[in-house]
Amino acid sequence: MGIVSWIILGLLAGVVAKILLPGRDPGGLVGTTLIGVLGAFLGGWISARFLDHPISKDFYDGATWAAAIGGSLVLLIAYRLVFGNSRD
Fold this sequence. Notes:
Blueprint: H1 3-20, H2 28-49, H3 62-83
């Protein structure tokens, strides 16, 4: 996958993570994309390191998407724990 594919994957994974964990988070499109891209890398690392299941580099692989969304959820939860509801 190229860099554009990682950005698209990250954007979509970030959107899915925000749908699964609704709430008011700052950042908009850029924040969602950053959470998604970083979550994709985090999810891939967790999958390869602890679950002994390295993800493939195929954009349409289900394990790639699951790792990206899972990593995005972890980052979104961590963000909310650290910063709380900063938009109250």
